Amino acid sequence: MEDESERPIGSFEGSPPIGILRRPLRCIVKLGGAAVTCKHEVEKINEEDLGRVSSHLRQAMMGCGPVTEVLGMDWSRGAGAAGIDSISDFNEYAIPNLESLIIVHGAGSFGHFQASKSGVHKGGLHVPIVKAGFVATRISVTSLSLAIVRALAREGIPAVGMPPFACGWSTTERNVASADIYQITQTLNAGLVPVLHGDAVLDNQQGCTILSGDVIIRHLTQQLRPEYVVFLTDVLGVYDRPPANPKAVLLREIAVEDDGRWSVMSPLIQQATGEGVEITVAAHDTTGGMETKISEAAAIARLGIDVFITKAGTDHSLRALRGELLGASVDDWLGTAIRPAQRPLR
Ligand SMILES: Nc1ncnc2c1ncn2[C@@H]1O[C@H](COP(=O)(O)OP(=O)(O)OP(=O)(O)O)[C@@H](O)[C@H]1O
Ligand SMILES: C=C(C)CCOP(=O)(O)O
């Protein structure tokens, strides 16, 4: 007989089974490519920030449980590389009961350059340069993904890479058409942490496209209903204009109506609606940058789920990851909280 604590989540008639999560999903995190890579230098990881973010993720996943010793799991290159004396250390080790989490990372300077040069996002897989670009994009983004999985494993997070192209994700006219959610559910139930990423995928209409990590997060949220979603990037949040502009104002709180319209609740500025916000996107960005992030975040808030956008590696991001802001005031926090309208705060 099934464990009564098992919670069926969103199994829709006619759609493929998505499985049953044995415990509620705490959070889905987007590790922005702009945060963990140097976005304007091809294939350059920002090692310091990646290390800090991985440590924050571990701290957040420990929840309020006892502080336990961390044993690094990246020992494929030898125990020393993982910071442990010997792999037999694991014989005596009880892996802590970590909060359930999914990590999705962006491509940053891995993948966007290759995709934009060859036009993978526009489709046409039969065209030789697009096919070659598809291959090059996947080589690039999966090599970043391996580095991220390694960094998480070094922090003792049981992370496993699940590249969308290889795990059943495809699109129709650039919208998610299929995704193997069952595999993700089973991975979470096994106590592992799925690591997905923005990827080059097959598209039923145009042959291929680039599926953004931000869009993947919305789909996962619809299916698996986490308690909250955190987007970590290289700026404190959404500003009323590009943050390089000295007059830019950080939008602290955005409320999303049932019909998808959103308005700025704090601070009270003139451009109080979505249309007033000015956004720039890097020329090589194939997925729409901050603009996509805001519209996906608003779609998530419409589902009744709080979203927090903030700068990776800061105290603000640690608080967001720990869930401290859930339903709480964000007056003393720097970032953008995107919430369903008419939800009373704690
Ligand atoms: N109005 C705005 N508010 C906030 N950021 C903005 C705005 N306009 C432009 N930006 C830019 O958006 C960038 C963050 O979006 P981007 O999509 O690059 O982040 P990411 O998710 O971390 O990266 P990736 O898409 O590679 O995963 C910032 O570097 C910032 O300069
Ligand atoms: C360019 C590729 C391969 C994926 C882009 O994903 P994103 O950085 O999350 O938008």
UniProtKB/TrEMBL annotation:
UniProt xrefs under SUPFAM superfamilies:
Carbamate kinase-like
Pfam families per the record?
A: AA_kinase (PF00696)
Recorded catalytic activity of this chain's protein: isopentenyl phosphate + ATP = isopentenyl diphosphate + ADP
For the keyword Chloroplast, the answer is: no
Quick one: which residues bind ATP?
G108, D234, G289, K293
Q: Where is the Aspartate/glutamate/uridylate kinase domain?
A: 99-310
Give residues annotated as binding substrate.
Answer: A107, H112, G213
Q: Which GO terms describe its cellular component?
A: cytosol
For this protein, the record's InterPro entries field holds: AceGlu_kinase-like_sf, Asp/Glu/Uridylate_kinase, Fosfomycin_R_FomA-type
Indicate yes or no for the key word Transferase: yes
Biological process terms from the Gene Ontology for this record are:
terpenoid biosynthetic process
| Keywords from the named record | ATP-binding, Isoprene biosynthesis, Kinase, Nucleotide-binding, Transferase
Example GO molecular function term?
isopentenyl phosphate kinase activity
The Swiss-Prot or TrEMBL record describes its family as follows:
Belongs to the isopentenyl phosphate kinase family.
State what protein this is by name: Isopentenyl phosphate kinase
